[in-house]
Structures are given as structure tokens and as C-alpha cells.
């Protein structure tokens, strides 16, 4: 029996939509996009906390083939990203092929029928020739198991489940976490609450954010002369690329640039925070780039406000009316905001159970061996499977770079499948090992291994201490390889 669908895509964020657009282009339009949330947009649907905005300039953080001339700011607010996602879904006719509130519980390769069988909670399994997972990197929220948290009598909000109806005015609030989310959220919460205590375990590097509204005259220019927006995208992407490739990946050869970025962040802190002790506590003790750096003109300043407190003692337990720190003090609160991020390495790689050829479990394979994926997209023993959020797949600083490189990889791979009239592809062990060896060697001179990252607690590192998230090559290299990888890195089988 032929499978029901050409392809099943899991995830209706920008990654899943890019995959859908490419499947259509390849003539594999009979696909379905399964999404656990009630609407499309992934991160930009789930995250709605105050202050949410993109931290890569919008000319770059968008599909190159679908520019939006009407971004209101250099760094668009979250709601605009959500509207952009809706526009893309409608324009590329994806919405009708999305199924929301559909939780995929697992997928299994059926070698008899050469198809994937995808299980759905509370529903019938679906079958498809190809499976593509686009479940995101930062999609499994993490709540630390603070002792006593279940006894807290006030309101608990994780930043990924913001309660729009909860009024923060006059509250005594705590924010736990000082990652990129907290950097955006802290100034907004401070504006309305009576008292705010920010619990920091590891300080974050913050550099100034060069942000401003994009005047209508420029938006019109982008609209009428698309080349101008393309030029802006090229200039911005080049600057980001230099930062990433030179400052992070070639840390060993270009320590000065990395140090320069650190000095800029320290100068920013110096000019923004009046109290020397607070400045000391906010100063990172690991190299710039070990963790994703952030941009803000308002985060540091907030700590000058008399009702905002920085707490660096570790959290011992939560009680019904407050948080007790290791020094025995209780901070009384009625609102507990968890800006505690995501769990990548225990539950997100992969986000669902995936069983390939010979019963191999992808999650177990990655944990028992090393996290790996050829070109950050395919894995031996997993035929007809594209894992779009894989170890070593994230290329550059804008996720759209990764998405579009993977779309190109799909184009080349499926082109060869069609030429051979094949039904099944699988990456070879040899090609996978060579890729893993290559990225492992390249990472040696990166800030992750040559710098001082041991105290950063960065999610770039997995439980084995490997920085297995980012692809350690330029985005140009990622795009070049996506259109030129050796075709015999795969084996192809006909029906
Ligand atoms: P995150 O960077 O993982 O930060 C989580 C924070 O929670 C960290 O400060 C962490 O401290 C703290 N934390 C976790 N467990 C804790 C515990 N047991 N006790 C005390 N503190 C604890 O998560 P995020 O801020 O949500 O950001 C994740 C990523 O999302 C960013 O790096 C960025 O890539 C993306 N993001 C992007 C945007 C944007 O584009 N606009 C905005 C927000 C987020 P430690 O550091 O000590 O672990």
C-alpha cells in the first residue's frame, strides 16, 4: 500500500513552513504539517511575554525569498514576527495543510512499505514516504525543580506561557533567570510592579542594541526597490557572520576581536549601572560568545531603580510566600516569573521518539554515542528522514540561514532521488563520520574549547560537555555544501 502522504512535517514554525515551501517546489505537495500548538508560528506563537522582540535585525531574520518591506523597527517586536508567519502560511498555501492541536507521540520507519508511521495522541496513525521534523531548538520549556515550588501560594508564570490577563501592577515579583528572555522582560516588568527581585545564577554579556523605528519613507523604498532591502540584508548578515565566524569560531586566531566585544559590553555596563557592587555582580566571568550574547539598552539601567533588586545568592527553596536563598533570607513575593529557558539536550534532541531502521532509537543513539547528523540534517539508519533541528545544524546567527541551507539540501537530495526514480534515501555511515570528524576538528579553535566557558552554563554544550549545537563553519560554506555535497554520500533504493 502506498503511504497516505508524500511527507509529514512536524512543527508549523518557520522551519516547518520552509520545509513545506520546498516540498511544494519539488512537486511533493501532498504533505501535512502537524503542530502541537493551536496555531502556527512556533516560537513566535508560543512566546508572548512583554518586551518580546527579535534579536537579529529583521532584514536578516526573515526568508530571503519573502522579504517584508514593512518591519516597523530594525528589530521587530514579537507580534510582527507572528503576523509575518501568518502571511507566509497564507501566501504559500500552507495553512490548509496544517493540523493544529495535534501532538505527535512518535514515528517509526516501516521497512516493508518504505514509509514512516507517525503516531498521534488520541488519533489514528498517519503514514508518509518522508518524515521531516522541524520541532525547534528552544521549544521544550524548562522549569527547574526548586524544592517547595508546588507550595507557592501566588502566581507562577513561565515566559513561554505568558498569562495576558494577569495584571502585574503593584505586585511583588521575582524573575528567575538572566538569559536573553529575561533581558527583554526585566525592564518591562519593572515598569509596573511594586518590587522586583531578579535571581541571577550566571550573568550574561549584554551589548548595546542599535534599534530604531524604520521610517515609512524607508519602508516605501524597500517596497518599491527591493534591491535596497537586499543590500541592507547583505550588509547586516555580513556583520553578523564576521562576529560569528571570526569572534566565536576562530577565537584562537582572533582573540582580540572577542576581547573587544567583551570590553564593549563592560563599557556598556559601566555607563548604565551606578552601583559598583551591582556592576561587579552583573559582570560575566566567562568569555564572550560561550553563551548567546544579548542586546539591550534598558536591561542594565533597570538595576538602578530603587524597587529593583539583583539577588545572586542561590535559591534554596520556594515557600508559599517567597523564595529562600542559601544565606537564609526570604524574599517575599506574590508573583514568580520563570525565565528559566529550555531543555535542549535531555528532551529536545529529538523532541519525539523516532525509531529508524533495525529498531534504532534516535534519542538513544545520540545519547549512547555522540550527538551527530550529516550536514546537520540526516542520520544513518534513518531512511527518508530529515531532522531539521539536529546537532551541528544551526548555522550563523539567524535561524533563517539554517532553514534556507536545509531547503537547498532538500532540493539537491530529492533531485537525485527523482533522477534515479528512487523511493528511499539514507546517508552513509562514512559520510556521517567524516562530517562529524570535520566539525569536531573545526570546533577546537572556537571559543567553546579554546576559550574559558567552564562557568558559562551555556546551552550550546550538551551533557557530555560537547558544543554540539552550532555548525562551526561559515554560512557561505553551509549554503555551498547544501548545493554541492557528494551525491554518493547517500545510498538510494528503488521500490
Ligand atoms: P536561557 O538563555 O537558557 O536562560 C535561562 C536562565 O534561567 C539562565 O539565566 C539560567 O541560569 C536560569 N536558570 C535555569 N535554571 C536555573 C536554576 N535552577 N536556578 C537559577 N537559575 C536558573 O533561556 P532564555 O533566556 O529563554 O533564552 C534562550 C534563547 O532563546 C536565547 O539564547 C536566544 O537564543 C533565544 N531568545 C531569543 C530572543 C529573541 O530573539 N528576541 C529572545 C529571548 C530568547 P544559568 O545561566 O546559570 O543556567
TrEMBL record:
Pfam families xrefs: Pyr_redox_3
SUPFAM superfamilies: FAD/NAD(P)-binding domain
InterPro entries given in the database record: FAD-bind_Monooxygenase_sf, FAD/NAD-bd_sf
Enzyme class at the top of the EC tree: oxidoreductase
Record keywords: Monooxygenase, Oxidoreductase
Key word Membrane present: no
Keyword Oxidoreductase annotated: yes
GO molecular function list: monooxygenase activity
Domain of life: Bacteria
E.C. number: 1.14.13.-
Full protein name: Baeyer-Villiger monooxygenase
